[in-house]
Write a structure and sequence with these properties.
- This protein is mainly alpha-helical.
- The chain folds into 2 domains: 224 residues, no CATH class; 248 residues.
- Helix 4 runs parallel beside helix 7, helix 18 runs antiparallel to helix 22 and helix 20 crosses helix 25.
- The longest helix has 32 residues.
- The two termini are 34 Å apart.
- About 2% of the residues have low confidence.
Length: 492
Amino acid sequence: MITTLLSHGWKKFKRSVAFEKELATNIFLGLIAIMVFGYAIALGFFLEKIITNGFNQPDSVGFLNGLLFYYFGFEFMLRYFMQSTPALDVQPYLHLPVSRRYLVHYMLIKSLLHLLNFLALVLFAPFAFTAVATQAGASAGVWLLSIYLISLCLHYLVLIFKKGLDDTIIGFLVLTGVLGVFALADYYNWFNVSKISAAGFKFILSNPMAIVGLLALLLAIYYFNFTYFLRNMYSEELTPNKSSKDSASQNLAFLQSFGMLGEWANLEVKLILRNKRTRSLLMLSAFFLFYGLIFYTNKTYTEGLPGFLLFVAIFITGIFMINYGQFLFSWQSNHFDFTLTRPVSLAQVVESKYWLLCGITVICFVLSIPYVYFGWHILLTHLAAALFNMGVNVFVIMNLAMWNPKKIDLTKSSMMNHQGVGAAQWVMGIPVLLSPYLFYLPFSIAGYPTRGVVAVGLVGIIGLVFRTKLLSLTTKRLQERRYAIAAGFRKD
């Protein structure tokens, strides 16, 4: 029965209308996946040299064992954003005389086909059969199998975690909070997580039978998932959690004071909080606020490549604007026709979207203020980038978002989901991320990089001063394109 259900899943994918329509995109994404796995294999072969030569660690196996806890923490975070719950796959069978136990097993087994379930094997297999095998012999296979079993445990933990918390912001805060506590504990030496990790995997190498314990743990987590989904295998339980929607349906009182603009912005905020794809995009944008820690802690960038910090600042302060704005009109694809039939002003619609994007950009800038710890020039760069985003980039994004937007299913997660992606999304990042350098580079080449940052901020202020004119031009373009946009949504 399970093999029959898997066969149905393959036929559904192959025979779907979107399969041929998006074949080129699927091939492109497949090539990207092959490239990523190729890099992972290469990294696995060079991992020992990186540890011994780059980190000056004579015991590469022991050092890597200590880092595996952090790898699994990163993998859990990656799975949280990229892995979706497969519960909706079984809905078409619920009214048929098929045992629910078979349906749950099918759902859980099919979820194993996710690409992330092969990442640990691809990354650590070369290291296991070179460095680990040299020290521990045949136990290297047990070491690799233990990593794979832990990865599968994370797979099923994420399923139950996301299903229980329904991709809510609370779930994201719980996840980041737990990982943050472990990071602080290691940083302040409350207890050394890396030593615990190293001791655990060393024990596995010394006692191969310990793999039985990990296998039992995997089976226990699988059984917990099985009983949970079996108990909730009903149509009303498989649909998104209503409680999150109800909490998002409350009006934001402070927006009411802005009249009709506030009403439209309030509707947009409800759309973001109610739907899975926009919600996951919002949480992902919050996660990328930590993007600066990769570069601001490295003198190679802060001293050797100061111009690159402007790119980082544009990305940090405008991450939500870029991610959400590129599909600015696609989010309303399901009811865009209805909006056009209402006696509403398109100017108010455009202006409400403008202030929403600018408002969240201000929030991103405020949340990035702690980066001043790395220097006042970082704060100045972030301020200039935020002003440029609100004065220039927002209009670039809004206008490019009108370029043949495609329909989007808001109930799906944003990760590994290319629905709605068109030509505009591929080229949008070029002007948004590189246009600030048109004003920065002349001063930087002349030896005045700080003045270049100030110039970027001044250009943003000029854009804010002339925002009324720019909003008018954007509205005029939407009026010209509105019927073509609506027809495109009906075609998809």
